[in-house]
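---------- Forwarded message ----------

FYI, see the RNB-domain-containing protein record below. Original note from H. follows.
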Amino acid sequence: MHSLSLRASGEVCMRCQWRLFNQRANVRQIQSRRGLGSLNVPKTPRRALHAATVRSQVVSTPTGTPPTPDPVLIPRAGNVPIRKQLEQWQHQYGTPTEETLSAFGNHPERNDIQNSLSKLSSGFKADEEARASDWDSAQEDDGAELMTIGLFLKPGDVVELSQPGREPVLAVFVQQLGNDSQFFSVNGRWAHSALATVAFAIPGCIDPALLQPLVPFMPTDPSKANIKGEVHVPQDVAAPVVKMLKGMTEEAEQIYRTKASIIDTAYAVLADADRTRMMRLTQIAQRLLAPGDSTWVVPPAALLAVRKALNHNEFRFRSDIRSHRLTNTFAIRPKRDVRVIETVHEWIREYREFLALSVHNSERKSKPMYTKGARYVADFLQKARRLIANSRKHREPDYGNVGPSKTGEPGEEMSISWGEPFTDSDKQIIDFLQAWVLTGQFTNMSGLHAACASLLSATGCYGSGVIRVVGTPDDKLSYVGPATGLLFLQEIGVLSPHEDRAIYDEQLMLPTVRTSRNLELLNTKAELTRRNPDFSDSMADLRRDWGSTTIYCIDDVGAHEIDDGISIERVADSESEFWIHVHVANPTAFLDKSHTLSGLAAHMTETVYTPERAFPMLPTWATQGHFSIDRNRPIITFSSRIDGAGSVLETKIQHGIAQNVISITPSELSTLLDNHSTTNTRKLVVGGQVPKAEERPPPTVSPSQLQDLRDLFTAAQALWEARKAAGGVRFGTGNASVRLWENTNQAGMTWYPPSVERARLIRGDPIIELTNVLPESFMQYTITPKHIVEEMMMLGGRTAASWCAERNIPVIYRGTVEPPSSETLSTDELQDLVHSHFEEHGTISLELAARYTKALGRAIAHFSPLPHKIIGIPSYVKVTSPLRRFSDMIAHWQIEAAVRYEARTGMKFDALQGSSSPRNILPFSQRQIQEAIVTLSPRERIITQTKRDSKQYWATVAFLRAFKYHEAPLPEVFRYWVQHVAGSPGACKSGGRLPEYDLKASMLNVDTQVGDEWEVTLDMVDVFRRSVDVKPVRLLSRLDTLK
């Protein structure tokens, strides 16, 4: 009898059954697999592991555990069927091995169950790029707050888990395990995912108490757990949760089936012909399922049904994975854009069919006819080949970027020459490629990606040997992907040779991306305001004239706007107490929240600074002409009385007029205070000599003003010592700066928008200066006069937070929350360890710094005050940059409303007292502040990342020109700090930085540990990834894990 039929009939010999058991195909697992429904959590394709949302766990390596008895040796009872005996054997001997249970710390078989609701931890740790290191996260927390409490999943929240090309499945969030979010799916299986990749969640759907019985059967170490293994939640234990998830799934499917004729036409109903529309999921559902009924509350099942339809039209309905779970907002692409993409995609398909038919018919000596679309593509490719050939006479192709000009003198002016015109069909193909390369519109859309790659391959210009990098495998250099697409658009004269794609992020909504209708209207109204400013001072009657008080504005020469200054006065009869006044520009006294310029600021969120240019939040004519701090300009002042220990004794807020303003640079300040502390710097310059800066005479200060500056430094040191004692940290990285000059006479870079009318050839390259102050260690314990402004701005934010908290005013507070952690030491114990390590070694190891900063928590934005452990203050509100940060404007509006109330009534304002009628007094209610956090926090994060990416782009361009084209000398070896490690021993990839230049780097196939310091050489500069690949020379240091 055939072996398959033998197995099907149950007549299988004992030895074959034993072999099956050794292959981990036990009876219970086979039955559970057969019982799965149609919504199985899909297996991750091997080639898609890098992009999968739900990770398949790695099978643990077998260890030397005692063998299970061979069932052949077990005596067989008479007349007992083989299957029955196998089931008895499985019950007696088939328990999971010790090795398997090592991933399940709470499993009943381990006899140490710790099954309680306290084990269910919220998902505080949102990943960066799906797998961020604690080292990276800690470094970022010193800057902008990147998350809000709304981003955290809680036990019982239901989410969609997705993989490319598959329908999503419902799962319930159980707990957070470090960087892994743990879920239990509708299939009765556990799964782990990066929290940042979960795009949709419905809060509070399932009672967390129902999840308690599941916890003992869930992995505690996802890296060791095998999703195909024998340890899963028993069906009877999982049944209540599975039933609820299946009920939601079936209800959503029922809505989708009955409303398919409406839901599937969502794009035709909602899209505009030429403009992008932004709509939330609830708005879309109401418009489709209950048009005209404003009272209808959308049930979760309806949201799931509508999401299914939108996900089937992924390109037409764009969502940003970085913020979608928080905002649930979709950008509905214009019909024109969709028409272009679909048309060009069809043209490329026709061209590929033509090529296939040409090969097929070659034997018959008959040539197929071009379709119209295939002809368009063929003509475009012919033109592209000519343009590429011409470009390579002037610039060498490199990986993801063209090289520098082959002719011309360094520092000379750039020149432009024009080539062939592009036809209408060419323009559509170019738009198609730009959507792929610049704005990333085809992410996870394999069909569109393949179409683009095939188009570039058809040119024949990007095969093996075209791009030459010594030591780099040719298969990497010849791989056709988005990096090749960027190079192609540069070589055919569409994109500038110096195109910084960071500024093309669609979510930034900068002028580099097509503007929305709303932005066009705002710009039109802003221009009318410029011609006839209608500014009226709402705080005019409450302003104090600061008269002769010297206000010191400490900033670099050429600062775009001056929005803060500081002054100091000694407290009478005290040698150690000071009043510190932080003076801030006051545009909100002239612009209410409905003003046109306020609308512009809300749209921009922040001023976006890149090395080549700045995109201001408010128009330059308004900031420089009306609101930047200067003589006789309005200000709002945050004042604090502090003692010699840096303790804040008293605070107040008052409006005023600045009179005596002195501008001073940080270096001039250090000189005046006789601070000659040396800093170890690295500088790299390519493209010519850096133009000499305009020299200005040093500021003239009187003896009393010099004493003011000394007192400010004394106060700054006291404030830092107090913050440090409270656990605050100061990071030593991120000190690199990049400056550009288009030529020796022009700083910055002219923006050359994509040329879609005709090919453009740009000759010449900018001068790039990369400067970095080398950190002595990852964390720093001392400050210099250059840190005075930083300390005073934190003090101003602390003063604002304290003042608002006393009055229960909802604003955007910044603080930290503690994520779940496996750390065995308390925060205080780690702080003591950090201090003792610094005293002993004079530096802090990377590993210890990462542990400590992780223990301090994760920075968030919230509508009520909470401590900020990372900077070491009780509470914090950003208020010192209202000319370049919209969240500061919101805080100013709230504060000014309360100040006016108190001046009018003589009573202290309290937003919680009914008699105050806060709804009529404050411009923003608590609910509106919550909505502002939801809207602004994701954009703040994107802007922070954009500024970082832009700086890294220009730094890697400078390295490429120095390393490959020898425009400047580089060291033979570099230090490399390992920040995160992925992969298995012998095949791992580490990521980190070159601290001398603060440059991202990665190293392959070398066994590394987080916190390592290596000596390395450069292997390749990848401008597209804004990173460098390095090769190891030797390991410099590896500290054992500190206990």
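H. also flagged this: The CA atoms of residues 651 and 799 lie 6 Å apart.
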